[in-house]
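S.,

Sequence below, as promised.
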Amino acid sequence: MFPKSLSALSLAVLSALSNIVSAQTSLPPASTLTQITADIGPNPNNVGMFVYRPATVSQNPALIVAIHFCTGSAQAYFTGTQYAQLSEQHGFIVIYPDAPREGKCFDVHSTETLTHNGGGDSQGIASMVQFAIDNYGVDASKVFVTGTSSGAMMTNVMAGSYPDLFAAASIYSGVPFGCFAGTSEWNTQCAEGQLIKSAEEWGDEVRAAFPGYTGARPKMMIWHGTIDETLLYPNFGEEIKEWTNVLDVSQTPTTTTENDPESGYTKTTYGDVVVGYSAENVGHTVPVHADIDLAWFGIA
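The prediction came back faster than expected:
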């Protein structure tokens, strides 16, 4: 309660200052992983939002959404990847979504999450992106998404359900958009690489997520290990088929480079919009190559 001696003008000034402070509480402190508890917009499954801002943020910074694996967390992906450290060099902001359910896997199967503005985890993450654009000065043309395992699957979901938000994606050991579609959180047929479709069929899965959308779609970089025993290697080929179809480029590689970026990896490119990295004798999951991600995103 204010003391009676305060004038109406003083009350007005205090009220204005209070509003300014309240408006700034949504901005996380620099160089700290911070959970955002403000109302970020539609988030039907209550996906957690954690943000990292470097000590020096670029003007109109880029944004990377970095999505963790099953049994993981925003904190685990923050400490286990290099995006935060690299943001200190390049001034971008990182959002680390946190899965809201036991087991810490993301919803990559429901009709809601596989539909633009349909609900599910994808709508919560999309709201985080829009919140960052509105509150942190993020350049809407420089928003990128990446993830590992369940996070890789969620990356495909975000690229398919919200192509209007992302310029590029990098996917570590995932499955195609729509591969897990159904009522169950786990799809054995897909995980074991037995769900085989034509490129057009996969492409139709993506196009159906956002009917009538004719705008730009994110370019896609896809990583997979040849001896992955969790999400088996055939999923790599199915992802290539899906995204070359969606992005309207040939399934025949434009270039093929052995031992790139390191021994045992084979890089294939499809036009300038799809890149595949096949990692020989690598299991689940392919290690994150953050420097290459940043180059793909156009940040480095």
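The first strand starts at residue 34 and ends at 35.

Coffee later?
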